[in-house]
Task: structure prediction
Amino acid sequence: MTGKTYGTPLPGMPKAHFTGKLIVIEGADGSGRTTEAGLLKEWLEISGHAVVDTGLRRSTLVSEQIDQAKQGHTLGATTLALFYSVDFADQLENKIVPALAAGSTVLADRYIYTLMARAIARGASREWAEQLYEFALIPDLVVLLDARPDILLHRSIMKYGSLDYWESGMDLCLSPDRFESFFLYQERLRREFGWMRKSYGFRVIDANRNPAQVHVDVKRAVAPLYGSTKKRGHPRGGERPEPKEPTSPMPSAASE
Amino acid sequence: MIRETPSPAHGYPGRLLIFEGLDGSGKSTNARLLGKWLYARGYRVFFTEWNSSELVSDTIRRGKKKGLLTPTTFCLLHATDFADRFERHILPPLRAGYVVICDRYAYTAFARDAARGCDPHWVRNIYSFAPRADRTFYFQVPVSVTLHRKLASRQKISYYEAGMDMKLSDDIVVCFEKFQSRLKHEYDRLAVSDKFTVIDGDRPLEAVQTQIRKEIRPLLDGFPTVESLIHDG
Result:
């Protein structure tokens, strides 16, 4: 990857090109993001690429504190938005950049886009959010898993047995009714992802389908990054058959 | 009923007074004394300090102790702390018509982050939610004076205060002088661009306090005291 950022880079950032690749998977809760990231990681590793996972709230610096803050529901919108930016910056500097410099593929389960969408949905201006995150590396690929709110709703209920407070945007007080709030909030996020998909060049994939079908499209989007032009090909361009069962194929099944 | 005239600086009915300057410049002492005076005169006063958000301060302390902070995370963590303090303790009293006295404000971040190499425009944008003050007092003192005060009071110079993370020197006192000089340089520039009221802090405390009280008077012309609110309300 080029190592370019959206705006002024951070002090101390290496200016060289990185040999690794940065792939981002974005999408709402219930869009199948984590499942697809897992499948993609498996596929990339089988074909010989070292993959480092990253995501939101995984920094050593503040992830626990953010969790704690969310429990109490007491932080204001600007405070929470900035708290998340610390988490992101810490991971960028201490995890993402070193991994890219070492030639790994960094697979980010969400990136600055979710953080911007959430901040804007809570009253921040687009300019503020974009400038806040202008130091972020421009990924090689951003896949947006796009699913209808009613599908997200069902997946959320199936998964958690309820609607999550934050994913329903209850802190925004859009409606005292969580079911209604969920729809209103997801609609807002969708609107923000709407303009971002153009200005940031997202590769949008229909996530209303089952994971295996989505996985096929994800692979198709990722393969060219590794030099393969074949539509259904392996990232190395090999003739290997694709794993039939997308849930965790044994690495040995595909060994040479 | 007496209605507060909205402040021309930020549009809220309260008044926002900021005290900025290097550590040991006397700003905190003077801020407290001014607060006492205003309170005694019957004004509604609210006082806030830097690094006062409980949750975030914990993280900052931990990060500092373990040396986990880079200029960027240092900047963003302090911005988070300030946002929490702002949303919780500055904006509500300002809207409620209090005189809000801030011992350090966004300018502390502007000076420190610039001294650590962060892009000043980027930092400004982060803090763009913070309104302009009715008055910003900048306590200008030579670094030699603040260092002397620091050493005389036997306070320990902290790692980040000395800018040891910038590796300007291995000696903490030398590093402190160098880093604080950078900060002073940034403050001096801000004093011009952001129209600070510059206070010569290298004078007896009483003289400084008297000057500040004089400076404050016009700002409080027609500003209601608690008493007037009760009687006329």
